[in-house]
Amino acid sequence: MPPSIPLSRRNVPRDQAITVANSWLDLTSIQDPRRVSKFRHLKGTPAHKSFHIENIRNLSRQISGECDGFHANPERVAVPLSGPGGKIAIFELSKTGRLPDGVIPALVHGNNIMDFAWDPFDNHRLAVACDDGIIKLWKIPESGLNEPTNEAENEFNAHPDKIYFIKFHPTAKDVLASGSYDMTIKIWDLATLTEKIVLKGHTDQMFSFAWSPCGVFCSTVSKDGKIRIYKPRANDAPTREGKGPVGSRGARIIWALDGNFIVVMGFDKVSERQIMVFKSTDLNNPLNTVGLDVSPAILIPFYDEDSSTLFLTGKGDSTIYAFEITEESPYICPLSHHRCNNLHQGLSFLPKNVCDVSNVEFAKALRLTNNTIEPLSFTVPRIKTELFQDDLFPPTRVMWKSSLTSAEWFNGKDKAPPRISLKPDGMDLRKFSFRIFK
């Protein structure tokens, strides 16, 4: 006999009580055979205007298609500005409100910016790649950037040609990958500013690069329509190749489900934006392909591994699409999409430890519009929000602290990040009781 919900649900009809039990308790013994996501009805909520940064001016529209164009960390954001000199403005999230008129303090590079990224383990460090092949490392003062500066903490000649992308390693400190028009990917030890590994095998433009969650592998998707997986410390050639999107307008690639799957966002022959999911051990046969819409904007992804939720949006879009990536068919399950009141120029998600789990917030982002930066919260509706929703918040990987030094990683060591509970002190766990229908 199926269990029921006692007390407050006692007068609810039996069929409805079972539905409630399915929805809230996720009990496998009484689940509908059709899979229903716990995150299906996720809700996006913009923060109050008092938390916005306003009067942002002169946003650059000329950033390379391989660059996401906007990056945030828990303390500050980096925004490219238009005009000569390759400028990136740095805004402190603690200093909300209207920016004063006049010159916006910025990092001045002297050359066009190709890509930039925050160090995941240091909220004060920004890496920037320029079209002259130079990578600059900037140290942002504790109080923020108060005036324009062209003096980087360090810089080095990374490539003889323009750089497509730079990506920090997910678990090892001071490890950075850079891909260039010279068709190589170089992996750098920033502790010594030395080139350690050079990956080869590309014959055409690289659209996107992603480290696997464990940091052992990396993957790319390119204009030649191929997906490549590397094991960089073992071989400079791809260990696996497969066929990706056929369109040549651009693409993105990410890993999902503990690195067992790869998801690629691209275009088909008629410019429809598509999502393709592959088993990482078989890149020749997509498990599913979902068409989204016709748009020139490349879909930029963010993947929350705890909920297996994939968020997607493009520059100039007003909708943030959400899907759950699953290990079984159909592999790509649509969730509630969030529609914004106006267009955005970028979206950047923050680490899991900044989420307000007491309000069932499982993802938090910053949204860049034409003249504002706005926090955006993603929550899941629950009845008893005063209780810790342990089914929505499993122990999360500590991705904001490094597990290894660069020397350890280049010497072949691997170490998985620890997992911690996000339950706030003093917050009770959910408790349920059952009775048997008679």
Automatic annotation (TrEMBL):
Listed GO CC annotations: cytoplasm
WD repeats: 156-192, 199-240
SMART domains the record matches: DUF1899, DUF1900, WD40
Domain DUF1899: 33-97
Pfam family, one: WD40
InterPro entries assigned to the protein according to its UniProt record, in alphabetical order: Coronin, DUF1899, WD40/YVTN_repeat-like_dom_sf, WD40_repeat_CS, WD40_repeat_dom_sf, WD40_rpt
Keywords assigned by UniProt, alphabetized: Actin-binding, Cytoplasm, Repeat, WD repeat
Keyword Repeat: yes
Gene Ontology biological process terms, A to Z: actin cytoskeleton organization
Protein name listed in UniProt: Coronin
Family: Belongs to the WD repeat coronin family.
Source species: Zophobas morio
Keyword Lipoprotein among UniProt keywords: no
Subcellular locations according to the entry: Cytoplasm
Chain's role: F-actin regulator involved in anterograde Golgi to endosome transport: upon ubiquitination via 'Lys-33'-linked ubiquitin chains by the BCR(KLHL20) E3 ubiquitin ligase complex, interacts with EPS15 and localizes to the trans-Golgi network, where it promotes actin polymerization, thereby facilitating post-Golgi trafficking. May play a role in the maintenance of the Golgi apparatus morphology.
MF annotations from Gene Ontology: actin binding
Main location: cytoplasm
SUPFAM superfamilies with a match to the protein in the record: WD40 repeat-like
